[in-house]
């Protein structure tokens, strides 16, 4: 899993949705929801979704799985505003029930539905309700379960926090839940389990995606020192996806200036100590040493030679990623990317934007283009306005209340984007003095 990137300087291609569809079979109520087959698309979409929602009450797990697959396809490939507006609470709580009692596959599908539900409602009270109601179930499910279900839960948590996170405490709670999947707080009845490369990649990618929304971080240098040191250790792992996810997370941390904030905190200390009691000079030296270590790791990965059996495509992806990271660390230049969506150009010019784009694109899969063309929440996130407005039929019309919800100037995403633009301007102003350069001798 994770964000598998295309080369930075080329326009990424849009993933195709190759999920197999489910055909309808019996006329019995327990099976009548099997309505996602291509041959059934002439039926009213609200009817299909209503049938799928009804089927979530069934005792048979396989029936609920088919219902969830139907809802994933419909919410992923269409903007189902009217259905979501009418059945929002019912759908959310049935999906949470599936997470509590379902199979691994059912948990994965229900998690994906909840994420799609959040992207459909956009910012507002409903998105905040999704986050607050889902946290207990997701938190519990993350403590056990299969690899695939944990990955889906992590990505769901990232999406619902990105859309519905209303304050720093809510966002930090989600970040901590993600982190504990890989590095749990050990205590009574808690045993550290070595997680797979796929789970580590999903955690780091989800964590980075949520971190892009942060404004006004609480400075706890001990926690951040541990996080950055852990990400640095991941750069030495064998799995390329893990290394790329960790590299991008570190680039984001440098972009939003966390280490610089700690340096300023240390220099401004009035009592001669940092938060952990160490002397300011020692802390400053430690930060510079950590920067130097990461810089050397990034240099090595940007030039790594392919080993026996190494996939050339994966190797090139790693080299391109770490060349971009190295250029950013040394000169402050962020990778610029562009992609066409229905003839309109979507561009990124910061690590924040790139991480957001790749995560959303991965989560939506084959429905990415449709959502980017019609989902005004995503227009707001990426500053993207299609030149040609695609007509919405009566089924997809957006209510006045929804428009206000989507376009709120006080949205966390609007604020985040303003913050990132301001930081980009600061980055340009600081290039001549190497403001973002990683240098052990600073």
UniProtKB/TrEMBL annotation:
Gene3D superfamilies named among the record's database cross-references: Leucine-rich Repeat Variant (1.25.10.10)
Domain Interferon-related developmental regulator N-terminal: 23-330
InterPro entries linked: ARM-like, ARM-type_fold, IFRD, Interferon-rel_develop_reg_C, Interferon-rel_develop_reg_N
Annotated ranges, domain Interferon-related developmental regulator C-terminal: 375-427
Biased composition (Low complexity): 21-30
Pfam family for this entry, one: IFRD_C
Record region (Disordered): 1-30
Family note: Belongs to the IFRD family.
Name of the protein in its database record: Interferon-related developmental regulator N-terminal domain-containing protein
Organism listed in the record: Cucumis sativus (Cucumber)
């Amino acid at each position: 899993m994770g964000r598998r990137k295309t080369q930075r300087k080329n326009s990424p291609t849009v993933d195709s949705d190759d999920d197999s569809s489910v055909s309808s079979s019996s006329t019995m109520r327990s099976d009548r929801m099997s309505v996602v087959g291509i041959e059934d698309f002439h039926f009213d979409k609200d009817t299909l979704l209503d049938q799928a929602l009804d089927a979530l009450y069934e005792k048979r797990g396989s029936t609920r799985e088919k219902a969830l697959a139907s809802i994933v396809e419909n919410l992923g490939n269409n903007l189902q505003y009217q259905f979501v507006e009418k059945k929002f609470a019912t759908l959310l709580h049935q999906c949470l029930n599936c997470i509590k009692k379902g199979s691994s596959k059912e948990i994965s599908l229900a998690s994906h539905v909840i994420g799609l539900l959040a992207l459909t409602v956009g910012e507002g009270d409903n998105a905040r309700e999704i986050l607050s109601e889902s946290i207990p179930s997701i938190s519990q499910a993350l403590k056990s379960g299969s690899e695939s279900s944990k990955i889906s839960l992590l990505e769901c948590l990232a999406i619902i926090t990105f859309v519905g996170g209303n304050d720093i405490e809510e966002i930090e709670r989600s970040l901590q839940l993600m982190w504990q999947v890989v590095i749990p707080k050990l205590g009574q009845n808690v045993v550290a389990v070595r997680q797979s490369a796929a789970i580590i990649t999903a955690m780091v990618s989800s964590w980075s995606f949520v971190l892009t929304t942060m404004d006004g971080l609480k400075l706890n240098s001990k926690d951040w020192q541990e996080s950055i040191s852990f990400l640095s250790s991941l750069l030495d792992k064998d799995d390329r996806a893990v290394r790329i996810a960790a590299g991008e997370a570190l680039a984001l941390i440098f972009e939003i200036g966390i280490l610089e904030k700690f340096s300023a905190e240390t220099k401004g200390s009035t009592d001669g100590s940092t938060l952990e009691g160490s002397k300011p000079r020692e802390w400053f030296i430690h930060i510079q040493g950590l920067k130097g270590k990461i810089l050397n790791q990034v240099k090595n990965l940007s030039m790594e030679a392919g080993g026996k059996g190494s996939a050339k495509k994966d190797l090139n992806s790693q080299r391109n990623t770490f060349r971009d990271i190295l250029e950013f660390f040394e000169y402050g230049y962020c990778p610029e990317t562009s992609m066409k969506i229905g003839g309109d150009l979507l561009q990124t010019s910061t690590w924040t934007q790139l991480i957001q784009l790749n995560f959303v694109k991965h989560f939506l899969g084959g429905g990415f283009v449709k959502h980017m063309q019609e989902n005004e929440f995503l227009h707001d996130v990426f500053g993207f306005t299609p030149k040609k407005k695609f007509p919405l039929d009566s089924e997809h019309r957006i209510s006045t209340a929804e428009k206000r919800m989507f376009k709120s100037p006080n949205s966390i995403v609007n604020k985040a984007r303003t913050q990132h633009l301001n930081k980009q301007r600061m980055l340009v102003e600081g290039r001549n003095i190497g403001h973002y350069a990683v240098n052990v001798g600073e």
